[in-house]
Structure formats: structure tokens, C-alpha cells
Amino acid sequence: MIEAVLVDDEEKAIQSLQWELTNFSDEIEVIACFTDAFQALDYLHTNSPDCLFLDIEMPSMDGFQFIEKLQNRDVAIVITTAY
Q1: CA–CA separation, 28 vs 22, rounded Å?
Q2: pTM here?
Q3: SS3 7
Q4: How would you class 54 by CB atoms within 10 Å of its CB: exposed for 0-12, middle for 13-18, buried for 19 or more?
Q5: Cβ-contact 22, 48 below 8 angstroms
Q6: DSSP character string of 22-67
Q7: Per-residue pLDDT of the chain (83 residues; tens, 9 = 90+)
Q8: Residue 57, Cα to own-chain centre: how many angstroms?
Q9: pLDDT digit string (tens) for 4-18?
């Protein structure tokens, strides 16, 4: 089972992606979702998911800044964006 974390500033985008992952893949389990990038970073400092679905356009920091702040980069990152 692939453990995934979703990070997006829009709650509806998280809900939509979580629904798709849950209904179309038996191999992915969403273990956490965050609309706040800083809360997500705090979580990722102590947890090690297999995969991170990350929005690029967020108000507090963009996705690339988020990746730079990751301490553990041994995670597959899937960039999600509407742009």
C-alpha cells in the first residue's frame, strides 16, 4: 500500500483528489491532508509517507519553496496544479 499525503490550499481540490485516489486506486491510501503548507511541513518532519501530492500555487509558499524546506526528500512528489 502506498501512503500518500495531500497538500493544497483549496479544500475542494483536496476533496476531489482524495475521492479520485480512493475510488480509482486500491494501492493508494491517503493518510493526511493539509490546506496549510506549514502544518504539512510539521507533519512531514515526523512522518514519512511514500508519496506527496503537492499543489504549486499556494498563498503562504509555493510548491517549490515547500520542497526546499522538506527535511526528508525520500518521497515521491506529484505536482498538482490548475495552472
Answers
A1: 7
A2: 0.94
A3: strand
A4: buried
A5: no
A6: HHH-SSEEEEEEES-HHHHHHHHHH---SEEEEES--SSS-HHHHH
A7: 999 999 999 999 999 999 999 999 999 999 999 999 999 999 999 999 999 999 999 998 999 999 999 988 899 999 998 87
A8: 13
A9: 999 999 999 999 999
